[in-house]
Amino acid sequence: MSLPVLILRPEPGASATLEAARQMGLDARACPLFAVGPLAWEPVPRAHVDAVLLGSTNALRHGGPALARYRGVPAYAVGATTAGAARAAGLDVVASGKGGLQAMLGALAPGHRRLLRLAGRERVELALPPGVEVVLREVYSSEPLPLPPEIAALLSRPALALLHSGSAAAHFAHLCDVHGIDRSRLLLAAIGPRVAAQAGAGWRDLRSASLPDDAALLALASRMCQEAGPGL
Asked: I need a labelling partner for 232 at 20 to 30 A (CA). Which of 3, 9, 78, 161 fits?
């Protein structure tokens, strides 16, 4: 019997990861532990914004009509998917990368000193370079969901869970403890070390992907499943 792989990220990302995982031959199933929805927010006057910071497609998916006022404004986006969504929203993507928003701050153009960060209620705090000001607007939230009974039952035997965020790691660990699930039976593949740290200790195996993207995370999960073998 192959090792079940649980995808905990919210939709629509969960379905995208599920399709990619199944194409790799993994015994994957989607189990979103958060529901993402919009928040009311007060736009910043366009004249006060040199550039927009985007760490997730959720900011674009849930930002609402107010996003239209920033058409043509330079944007820094984490990941190709977020960059593509930003272009579709009319933003002028001047840089994108895989290292998170902190890395983006090291690549700012000289004239980009007043930044608008569109983010979720739960987010990574940033260390700002000298002379740079960031105005934060929370445009979406991720609300935790309970563990479905069928997934709790599945976790009574060995399985592997994909961790796309620190909040997912912490929530999954909490749910395992609430349901009396033995951590030592489970393997975790995290999208990065900071995410892995949020899961705590006691797992059968806990590793971080070589790059903070979905492809690297799935490649790690595939290796962990192969090393674990069917008889785990």
From this structure: 9
Prediction pTM value:
0.82
Kind and range of the H or E run holding 4: strand 4-7
Contact between 203 and 188 (Cβ < 8 Å) = yes
In this structure, the number of other CB atoms found within 10 A of the CB of residue 153 comes to 12
Asked if residues 66 and 41 have their Cβ atoms less than 8 Å apart, the reply is yes
Domains detected in the chain: 4-33+146-228 (3.40.50.10090), 36-142 (3.40.50.10090)
Residue 44: HSE in the Cβ half-sphere, 13 Å Cα cutoff = 19
Residue 12, preceding peptide bond in cis (omega within 30° of 0): yes
CA-wise closest residue to 123 among 61, 66, 194: 194
CA nearest neighbour of 134 among 110, 116, 121, 107 = 116
Q: How far is CA 171 from CA 16, 108, 137, 146, 188, in A?
A: 21, 34, 24, 9, 13
Q: Report the distance separating Cα 72 and Cα 65, nearest Å.
A: 15
Asked whether the CA dihedral 183, 189, 191, 196 is positive or negative, the reply is positive
142 exposed, middle or buried (CB, 10 Å; 0-12, 13-18, 19+)?
Answer: buried
